[in-house]
Amino acid sequence: MKDLKHLIYFENLLQEANNELVAKAVEDGEIALGYNCYYIPEVLLNLPGCFSSRLRAPRCQSADIATYYMTNRNCPYVRSILERAIEGGYNYLSALFGAEGCAAMERMEEHFFLLNPVKHDNFFVTIIDPPMKGDKTSLDYYKQQLQLKVLDAMHDKLGVDTSDAALREAVARFNELCDVMTEIGNFRKLENPPITGYEFHVMQLVSEVCPHNLILPYLKETLEELKTREPEPSFPFRARVVIAGSEIDDPEFTKLIEMCGAMVVADRYCFGSFPGRERIEIAEGETAFDAICRHYQHWNQCARFMSGDKIDQRHTEVKRLVDEFGADGVIYESMKFCEFWSYEKVLASHVLTNEMGVPCCTIEKEYALGSVGQLRTRFQAFVESLEIKKLQAKEASR
User: Fold this and answer.
1) For the chain, what is the radius of gyration of the CA atoms?
2) Which Gene3D superfamilies does the UniProt entry name for this protein (predicted)?
3) 316, part of any domain
4) Residue 386 structural domain
């Protein structure tokens, strides 16, 4: 396929947290607000005068200093984020809005004020206690946490307008971004898509780490480009897969899978578009804040949710993506030392394989891709098994 006009530019934006568009927004007086987890609604950090910055540590090869303050048995994602903070990589931030998604995440966020690694005037950290169930009591508690530790903190410490009118404006702008990304992602449903999983992964990441108002024009132009982009003469992959799991913010991981013959057609993982790019609908008579809280509690697919309905929702959502995007199987990923996703990976693989008839491959990975020999072998074997299943199905239907 013909190269996308802005792909190299997007790739370059992912080389640093404080990239060209982030630096421009800060220079223009916008307030940069960092976050690590879907539990912190991205839309709240994009109120007028602010922009969200989901934290990554691109090209982090060592987390030795962060490991000294934490432990080498903590998830490598949180250690890499702390390492990059100590290196001065997040000095553009005015605040970090954290969530106790797990003990390791909370410990990393606590070190942002214990060590004071971000050298920015009046920088502060606030950490919410997110719910573990999807019921009304949990929703009420979630709303209280977000009001006290996000909205009130933004208003009192940064002077941000947090009125219902401002929230509705933020929702409208957020929905515009979501609509563009959803339309781009939907090309992957086609039998022979004009976009690869790698390309979509790059675009999804820049939509999370760059100021929305600055990246949106490039994404809109790319959407128009895709509408007329000619795909390969025939589908160039041997299988189609959904990736599910924890933090995956390195597009090279998606590229590795696709080099092994499987196109990534849907991304149900932290930093992915499921959840992340669903429209927020405000019901009649509902405040914008209530709608935001309801939306994020409902769509949240975090393995931290322990109630039966949310566990079932996670499995059903992956099966929905398999069916909707025509996938042949699922790759379930967990970060090394991640307790929640390690358990979820085993349970979900069993449910999908034995109860829903969806082939699964489970893997564990470091934050930095590093040595890929074992992963490549696993992916190649999984692709071959999917091909065999398709051949057997054809034989059985004759």
Assistant:
1) 21
2) 1.20.1270.370, 3.40.50.11890, 3.40.50.11900
3) yes
4) 233-397
Asked if the structure places residue 25 within a domain, the reply is: no
CB 33 within 8 A of CB 95: yes
Residues 6+ apart with CB under 8 A from 295: 41, 278, 280, 281
- Contacts of residue 198, defined as CB under 8 A and 6 or more positions apart, other chains included, come to 251, 254, 255, 258, 264
Q: Does some domain include residue 389? A: yes
DSSP 363-387: EEE-SS----HHHHHHHHHHHHHHH
Residue with structure tokens 């971000």? 118
Sheet holding 239-247: strands in order across? 262-270, 239-247, 329-335, 360-365
Task: Identify the burial level of 284 via C-beta atoms within 10 angstroms of its C-beta, where 0-12 means exposed, 13-18 middle and 19 or more buried.
Answer: exposed
Report strand pairing: 95-99 vs 124-128.
parallel
Place of tokens 């809280």: 293
pLDDT averaged per 10 residues, the chain (length 398) = 97 98 98 97 98 96 93 93 97 97 94 95 96 96 98 98 98 98 98 98 98 98 98 96 97 97 97 97 98 98 95 98 98 94 95 97 91 91 95 82
- For tokens 């564990």, name the residue: 364
Residue 381: both structure tokens together: 């074997």
The reply to whether 356 falls in a domain is yes
Q: How many Å apart are CA 292 and CA 265, to the nearest integer? A: 27
Tally of domains within the chain: 1
CATH number, domain with residue 291:
3.40.50.11900
What's the pLDDT score for residue 139? 98
Percentage helix, strand, coil for the chain under 3-state DSSP, each rounded to 5: 50, 15, 35
Helix (H) or strand (E) holding 266: strand 262-270
